[in-house]
Amino acid sequence: MIPEIAIIGHPNEGKSSVLSTLAEDDSVRISATPGETTECRTFPVRIDGREILRFTDTPGFQNPGRVLSEMKKHATAGTDPLRTFRQFAKGIPELHDDYELLGPLEKDAGIIYVVDGSRPVRNVDRAEMEILRLTGRPRMAIINCKEENNIYLADWKNEFRQNFNANRVFNAHRATYAERILLLEALRTIDQDWQQPLWEVITAFKKDWAARNITTVDIICRLLQKCLSLQVNKNVDSEKDEAQYRKKLFQKYCDTINQYEKEAHREIRTLFKHNIFQYELPNHSILHQDLFDERTWQLLGLTRKQVIIAGGLGGAAIGVGLDVAALGHGFGIFTAVGTVAGVVSALFGGESLSGKAEIMGIPLGGEQIQIGPAKSINLLFVLLNRSLLYYQQTINWAHGRRDYNKDNQAPTTETPHSSFTSAWSAANIKICHDFFKVIQNESANDTQQISAKFSQLLVETLGKISESE
Ligand SMILES: Nc1nc2c(ncn2[C@@H]2O[C@H](COP(=O)(O)OP(=O)(O)OP(=O)(O)O)[C@@H](O)[C@H]2O)c(=O)[nH]1
Ligand SMILES: [Mg+2]
């Protein structure tokens, strides 16, 4: 049996948004104009090509008072109120939406009733709830607060207790993976027949999520491998042009890494089924900063303490870059490479720095015009933290949420001044260090084991991000 759940409610309360979020489908039509949905549409949830659950979007109630009095009449007469109402309403234009929305219930669908809990309960809502009670179908109510206000929550819950088998607060714009699972678990309890199939659905959901996390880890590892081993070269015709070439080459190096990162992030986005709508990152997100920006490196690189740990492990250069950057030029070190000739020559042309010519651990090739592969483990941490941030934003962007209201920004779990890895222990830093050595081909023979350990660390990290509210 494939459980079918109809999402029912008053127009414009967020039914389609709830469905979109629950089914992770950003093709569901959502609009600020009431009456957007006029026909039922079923969205199958498939895992590994197998349909495991169906959600049906329905139009909003148009005449709850009239529907209720018709149904009550039939109920008192001893006939099935749902069936007889639909027979009666068929073909009556003003009852079209009411006829349509009750259709899935005749085919034994269960009910999720959606209300906007940021407004008070009205009589029409009570009529709708009673209609649903008269259908006798298993039903649960969910409170989708469109505004930041929960003063009516207790009133709604009180009404729900009389008419529904369960109720939950579920925000179509903010619900996380963990909240989706909790909602399904609540749904399981409302009907005995649903316990087994919904248990299977929940198990399949969890398995699928874990598989997506493993794929994400693969994407991140591939990205690190490609970026950290990247090397760009150029033959120089005359010494005079060397600075110019260097500048161009460094730009090429940065552009390539940026490109690799974009591709990896796009893969993550697709994996989490954000296919249509381009979501926006919160204003304060560090992801808005360029990858090759000092601030990025300061916030997402190793902490001072971790630098010492990594240094102690030997070989993993942190790079003279940070020290050079700290000389107090008053502008970004990476910008300086490109724009201020004096600094360029001081950093890369000067005798005193030859052999150390690098930016933040990315070698600039001494005498040759060659940049990379990266020598600083900090590039690994910067790329890793940026991918983890991107993952966090992606999984917490509910599919029902289509626009980013700048004036009313949803809180984000992104903490502006600490990275995911900043609290990592010396043991974890060692795992990263070993992985870095594997990429640099400087590791001993147990490369597979090292890579597996690094992947495992990332799998655990993604798991923690998924479970956090
Ligand atoms: N801020 C906020 N807006 C929401 C939320 N849920 C829905 N909306 C907005 O409310 C409007 C109506 O959402 P829909 O999901 O289309 O509502 P519906 O119940 O399907 O509407 P009809 O199909 O017209 O009956 C849209 O502009 C949504 O973006 C929410 O949780 N928070
Ligand atoms: Mg709708």
Brief summary:
The chain has about 475 residues and is α/β, with parallel strands linked by helices. It is built from 17 helices and ten strands.
Descriptive labels:
10 strands; two-stranded antiparallel ribbon; Rossmann fold; alpha/beta; binds magnesium ion; 469 residues; 17 helices; binds guanosine-5'-triphosphate; 51% helix
Describe it.
Residues 316-332 and 336-356 have low confidence and may be disordered. The protein is 51% helix and 10% strand. It is elongated and about 95 Å long. It is built from 17 helices and ten strands. With 469 residues, it is an alpha/beta fold. Helix 13 (333-339) crosses helix 14 (341-349). It has a six-stranded mixed sheet with strand order 2-3-1-4-5-6, with helices on both faces. The chain has a two-stranded antiparallel ribbon with strand order 7-10. The chain binds guanosine-5'-triphosphate (GTP) and magnesium ion. Guanosine-5'-triphosphate binds at residues 9, 11-17, 30-32, 34-37, 59-60, 144, 146, 171-173.
Total number of beta strands: 10
- Order of SSEs: EHEEHHHEHEHEHHEHHHHHHEEEHHH
Helical proportion, percent range: 40-55%
The number of distinct helices, counting runs of at least 4 residues, comes to 17
Question: Which runs of at least 5 residues are low in confidence (pLDDT < 50)?
Answer: 316-332, 336-356
Shape: elongated
Strand content: 5-15%
Helix/strand-derived category reads alpha/beta
Strand order, largest beta sheet: 2-3-1-4-5-6
Largest beta-sheet details: 6 strands, mixed
Radius of gyration: 29 Å
Ligand inventory reads: guanosine-5'-triphosphate, magnesium ion
Average pLDDT over all residues:
84
Distance from N terminus to C terminus (CA atoms, Å) equals: 32 Å
Instruction: Provide the domain count.
Output: 2
